[in-house]
Amino acid sequence: MILDKEEGKLLKSIEKGEWRSTGNLDEEIEKARAIARATGAKNERMNIRMNRRDMMALKTRALERGVPYQTLVSSILRQWLRGETLASSHRKGSSKRNPNRLTTGRH
């Protein structure tokens, strides 16, 4: 069986005994499901205007990832709100720019 890098790391971790069994698997599964349901609840709408080029780039990126573009936007916003940086969106030479700074799009 051929494993990718991440799968190889996981297998080594398991083989080293770094994982332990949970005492109550059913309870843990239900907790994880409850968290997923609460996290995935989409009960608010948002409408925004953006230029055509950005919209096309957004849709292209979403297609590359195999997700609807609205899901990609939601994911990007969620990461930003958590304070996570969006490393893949940084361009060479833009390291001085704050990735979490909101702008109006006007310079």
Structural class of the helix and strand makeup?
mainly alpha
- What overall geometry do the principal axes of the alpha carbons give? extended
User: In angstroms, what is the radius of gyration?
Assistant: 19 Å
Would you identify the regions where 5 or more consecutive residues have pLDDT less than 50? 89-97, 103-107
Number of strands: 0
- Assembly state of the chains shown: single chain
Overall pLDDT: 80
**Helical coverage, percent range:** 40-55%
Proportion of residues in extended strands: under 5%
Q: Give the termini separation.
A: 53 Å
What is the N-to-C order of secondary-structure elements (H for helix, E for strand)?
HHHH
Mind summarizing the main beta sheet?
Answer: none
How many H/I helices?
4
Describe the overall structure.
Mean pLDDT is 80; it is low at 89-97 and 103-107. This protein is mainly α and 107 residues long. The radius of gyration is 19 Å and the shape is extended. The chain has a domain at 48-86. It contains 4 helices and no strands.
Task: Name the descriptors.
107 residues; mainly alpha; 50% helix; extended
Structural topology:
Layout: H1 5-15, H2 25-40, H3 52-65, H4 69-81
